[in-house]
Design brief:
Layout (H helix, E strand, L loop, with lengths): L49 E8 L9 H8 L3 E8 L2 H14 L6 E5 H11 L33 E13 H6 L6 H7 L4 H13 L6 E3 L2 H10 L18 H15 L11 H9 L2 E7 L2 H9 L7 E5 L7 E8 L7 H11 L2 H11 L2 E2 L8 H4 L11 H9 L11 H18 L3 H16 L1
Parallel strand pairs: 1-2, 1-3, 5-6
Antiparallel strand pairs: 3-8, 4-6, 4-7, 4-8, 4-9
Length: 442
């Protein structure tokens, strides 16, 4: 989001560039009646003005949708400033340091879904309980549960989720003799990710020179795992990644893609990946909602209309990524920060960021708004993303999260990259991954 919404090669890390889709006229969507109140910590200046800082990573879409400016119009005594770290893997250790020291924290801070379980388990006391500020049932059923302690404390309000789709380069598909209609493409991969690899083999037979079917086998791996309720931990909190059926399936498919040279072997969001999009050398990208902004930004205007979006492979819905906004208790303006979080995560504002950069709302109230229901992406051949993502979001399973999901996912993704880039044998790559993970999680 932002957009790297994932950790590592998941949507966890967001790229810092803005999406090229049009910014919503936020004034038509603004919620009113939200009072800023008075801070116990005093004002930032003698004239009573308050500055709230929102620390996040990558691209949440608030600035692009004009929401900070609109909030200031609603509350002239409050100015909102955003402190953005491009890479979530840099952002999160800094957040932990600030939480441990109790200083340096912003008034509002973003937390990625791959980190939320660890924060809930170890740092919940550092955050304001939002249970009385927001109505958790307004979100998709599993979203706020991810940020809720066993005692019922809600430490974060959900921003976006990452319902899955498949982004594909229509121009490259045509040159390889493949269908370009999104419904026909969806039919070709309807059987699942095995069908996706078969389509890749068809592509490679007539692929334009220097192009590849997919950008990253690790991205496909993450999509496979994300469609399963059980991923890296079981419901009792035990790490089961070594025996997880979804991990095994994703790993084997990634190894097959690497061995058949279907992937360009790029670590997502790094410079070579950005260059590949700009040069048009990849035909497909596994596409959680927030990924569309990455592609349009990095591929650039010359590829507008040459990309499209189809339903993700298989029948199982998947969620990859998503984040939360939380309010540290140590802030100077806790009351004002809490109200800002409530406003930013309300349906109208989530619809605004969706239209601005393509991050899909987690607040269900946004789904009935025209800005979501009727949303299309001109860059992607006017793909009906509101329909595509809403249908996917309706059947996403509630996944079991663990405290080290991010570490496990990143480590496995890195070893998949080694299979692609260095030719590491699957058995050796798996051994290296489990050795690293076991050192971290004990």
């Amino acid at each position: 989001m932002r957009i790297t919404r994932t950790v590592g090669s998941r949507r966890g890390r967001r790229g810092a560039a803005a999406a090229t889709t049009a910014v919503l006229a936020a004034s038509a969507l603004l919620l009113t009646g939200c009072s800023s109140g008075t801070s116990d910590g005093g004002s930032d200046a003698a004239n009573g003005q308050i500055t709230l800082t929102v620390a996040d990573y990558g691209q949440f879409g608030y600035k692009e949708a004009g929401l900070f400016a609109q909030y200031h119009k609603l509350h002239p005594d409050i100015t909102v400033k955003e402190d953005v770290t491009a890479d979530e893997t840099v952002y999160y250790p800094k957040l932990l340091q600030e939480l441990n020291s109790g200083s340096g924290l912003a008034d509002v801070t973003g937390i990625e879904v791959g980190r939320i379980k660890e924060v809930v388990d170890t740092k919940a006391d550092s955050f304001v309980d939002l249970a009385r500020t927001i109505k958790p049932s307004d979100w998709v059923s599993w979203k706020e549960a991810q940020a809720t302690t066993p005692g019922g404390q809600v430490i974060g309000a959900g921003t976006d989720i990452g319902p899955m789709s498949l982004c594909y380069n229509r121009d490259l598909f045509a040159k390889a003799g493949l269908p370009t209609d999104r419904d026909k493409v969806a039919q070709l991969v309807a059987g699942g990710w095995e069908d996706y690899l078969k389509l890749g083999e068809q592509y490679q037979k007539k692929a334009p020179s220097g192009t590849y079917f997919m950008d990253s086998a690790s991205a496909m791996y993450n999509a496979v795992v994300s469609s399963s309720p059980q991923q890296y931990y079981d419901k009792d909190g035990k790490a089961v990644y070594k025996t997880s059926a979804s991990v095994k399936e994703g790993w084997n498919l990634a190894a097959e893609a690497a061995s058949k040279k279907l992937s360009q072997g790029l670590a997502q969001f790094n410079d070579p990946w950005v260059a590949a999009l700009r040069k048009g050398t990849v035909a497909t990208v596994v596409c959680p909602a927030w990924m569309a902004g990455q592609i349009s930004t990095n591929a650039g205007p010359s590829f507008k209309g040459k990309w499209d979006i189809a339903k993700a492979p298989g029948a199982a819905a998947a969620n990859w990524g998503g984040s939360f906004l939380a309010v540290p208790k140590s802030g100077k303006h806790v009351k004002e920060a809490t109200q800002l979080v409530k406003w930013l995560t309300a349906p109208a504002q989530q619809a605004a960021t969706f239209k601005a950069i393509g991050v899909f709302p987690s607040n269900q109230g946004a789904y009935t708004l025209p800005a979501v229901q009727n949303a299309t992406l001109p860059y992607f051949n006017n793909a009906p993303i509101g329909t595509i993502y809403a249908q996917e979001a309706a059947s996403i399973p509630a996944a079991v999260l663990g405290p080290k999901d991010g570490v496990i996912k990143d480590t496995i993704s890195n070893e998949i990259n080694n299979m692609e880039q260095r030719g590491t044998k699957p058995a050796d790559a798996w051994a290296a991954a489990t050795k690293t993970i076991d050192k971290v999680i004990g």
